[in-house]
Specification:
The complex is a heterodimer of chains A (about 450) and B (about 150). Chain A is mainly α and about 450 residues long. Chain A contains 17 helices and no strands. Chain B has helices spanning about 5-15, 25-40, 45-55, 65-75, 100-125, and strands at about 45, 80-85, 90-100. The chains are: A mainly alpha (about 450), B mainly alpha (about 150).
Chain lengths: ~450, ~150
């Protein structure tokens, strides 16, 4: 046998060759294992024949053939592989890194638990249609703890973190249910809207685990959230088709199943789908192209064009913004949308690359959104005292300020990056560091607003 | 294991200095050849290639890696079945075995190749001159090759 020094270097060379091969989409890891066995046998033969290790390696690799041609040949035979397939449970042990059946079992059990949880209030006589207020406040509390549980299990979180997360959920339950809300009042609606946002931060802490303190950990959570939304929408579309079909075929035999669908299938399915979609996103990470960044690529230029057109029209016609009740919320949504576009294009960008045209479009988008919002805010500020400070308006104003601060500083960082004075990582860090702000503000709305506005 | 003369000679042949066989012919004959070798007994990639080299006297040179897509195609078609085994060295190796449909396919291929061979023999006989060992017919020039 060769001396150990040689053995190490040849192992390194094989490692390198293997990792080079793994990058080929058409060649799966099972095939790499098969080709590696071939390479090793060839190597052994050549070494026995007296070739030096390096020579033997070169000859053996050359015999396997040009990797481009080989991967083309594999692609021809396995053209399905170019359509990345989601392998949830690997059929042979060749595929490493794919989640095992244990993961699927855990996810499905938790999905069933979420479906049960959503109907559990029935035990206390609470019904979906009759107790809409209760459900609006608590729907995130019924589902998100189970999703958090999935990540606690999957990431094997430390007991300290788990305890802390439990405290958050219990506290959320207390604030959502012990305040004496006026039925159908604004503060109840605000709690219903903001509690999920605050709790989503807790899900993020469970998702990122120990990496929550790092930019990458939070960025992964952002990517996860975007993909989850897309998966959830797709699953919901499938659900609509399914329920429609069930209702129709049963009507054909004279049975009306709509009450069952409305009070059982749809809510349970919607709750379980949250966990299932999360599991799918986890399982497919590297399998499917991430959709959220693709959508941002499409929509960033469109949004930028619309905003510039809007600002231009505003200037040209000299019209003032028609201040009516919900105008602030409209502009909040606009800013949130722009931040989402910024976040998801950042999530897919290699921070080491120099600025390109798309970055310029991004800056145009951010700056025009800032200008639009400034116009709106100045129009509102002049008249806000006349409107009075209702809980809705204060919440909307607070959100506007939070989003505006984020965007303004993002614009500064982005322009610095474009001019070569800063790195893209600064922008990423700013965005990821800002995440807790949304959660904290949402928590403030849930905890402080109801007593502040006398539960109206 | 010793490096036989076949292995050494194929090292030099690799770059096409010495005559080889047209790529299309290699591709066309790969299915019957692989099936026939597997009909001799279960085997794996490297050993199949060694057998091809042995049988052809080193004249049929395959790029080693290209065997695997062929095996995978046969597997997909159900002509062979594959299974991982751990060999003495502790490595995992993928063994292939011919199936019943593979044997049927082999018989069919054999029939077709024999027909082609018989046809060619006929015309070789009729020509009976011109094609000698010293002047191999350049494969690319075959008008019926296309």
């Amino acid at each position: 046998m060769q001396d150990p020094g040689h053995a190490v270097s040849i192992e390194e060379q094989i490692d390198q060759w293997r990792s080079y091969l793994r990058r080929r989409q058409a060649i799966h890891s099972v095939d790499v294992a098969e080709l590696e066995d071939h390479l090793r046998e060839q190597l052994a033969v050549l070494l026995d024949a007296g070739l030096a290790t390096d020579e033997a390696f070169l000859v053996a690799v050359k015999r396997i053939g040009n990797l481009d041609a080989l991967s083309r040949e594999f692609a021809r035979e396995h053209s399905d592989r170019l359509w990345k397939q989601l392998v949830l449970v690997p059929s042979d042990s060749g595929g490493l890194q794919t989640p095992g059946p244990k993961d699927a079992i855990a996810a499905f059990s938790l999905a069933v638990a979420a479906a049960v949880a959503i109907k559990a209030p029935l035990l206390f006589g609470l019904q979906l249609d009759k107790d809409a207020g209760f459900y609006a406040r608590n729907v995130s509390l019924l589902v998100l703890p189970l999703l958090t549980g999935y990540f606690v299990w999957k990431r094997r979180l430390a007991a300290g973190t788990v305890r802390w997360l439990a405290v958050v959920f219990v506290a959320a339950g207390i604030f959502a249910n012990l305040y004496p809300f006026v039925p159908q009042g604004s503060t109840e609606a605000l709690t219903a809207l903001h509690l999920p946002i605050a709790l989503w931060l807790a899900v993020g802490i469970a998702y990122a685990g120990a990496r929550w303190r790092q930019v990458e950990g939070r960025m992964d959570f952002i990517r996860f959230s975007g993909e989850l939304l897309i998966y959830y929408v797709l699953i919901a579309l499938g659900g609509v088709v399914l329920t429609g079909l069930i209702a129709t075929i049963f009507r054909a035999i004279g049975i009306d199943v709509r009450p069952f669908l409305g009070s059982w299938l749809v809510p349970c399915g919607a709750a379980g789908a949250v966990v299932v979609a999360s599991w799918l996103v986890e399982a497919k990470q590297s399998v499917v192209e991430n959709m959220a960044p693709v959508l941002t690529r499409l929509f960033t230029p469109l949004f930028a064009a619309v905003l510039i057109l809007f600002l231009g029209t505003l200037l040209w016609t000299g019209r003032g913004i028609d201040i009516e009740r919900n105008v602030l919320i409209t502009f909040d949504l606009l800013l949130a949308m722009v931040i989402a576009l910024l976040l998801y294009s950042a999530s897919a960008r290699d921070p080491r690359l120099p600025p390109d045209v798309f970055d310029a479009v991004q800056v145009v988008l951010v700056v025009s959104a800032l200008l639009t919002d400034a116009v709106a805010l100045s129009a509102i500020a002049a008249r806000i005292s006349g409107f009075g400070f209702t809980p809705n308006r204060v919440a909307a104003l607070g959100e506007n300020v939070i989003l505006l601060v984020n965007l303004a500083w993002s614009a500064v960082l982005y322009i610095r990056f474009l001019r070569g004075r800063g790195s893209f990582t600064d922008l990423e860090r700013w965005q990821t560091n800002y995440l807790p702000v949304y959660g904290v503000w949402a928590a403030i709305v849930v905890i402080v607003f109801p007593p502040l506005f006398r539960y109206l | 294991m010793l490096l036989g003369p076949l292995e050494l000679s194929s090292l030099t042949q690799r770059d096409g200095e010495i005559m080889g066989i047209n790529k299309d012919l290699i591709a066309a004959s790969s299915t019957p050849l692989v099936l026939a070798i597997l009909a001799e007994g279960d085997s794996y990639g490297y050993a199949i290639l060694r057998r091809v080299r042995e049988l052809s006297g080193g004249r049929m040179e395959w790029t080693d890696g290209m065997l695997y897509p062929v095996l995978h195609r046969l597997e997909r078609l159900g002509h062979v079945e594959a299974r991982w085994k751990v060999v003495e060295s502790g490595r995992r190796r993928k063994y292939y075995r011919i199936t019943r449909s593979g044997r049927a396919q082999l018989a069919e291929e054999r029939r077709q190749w024999q027909a082609v061979d018989a046809t060619l023999r006929g015309i070789w006989g009729a020509l009976s001159l011109g094609v000698t060992a010293g002047h191999p017919l350049p494969a690319a020039a075959c008008p019926w090759g296309a």
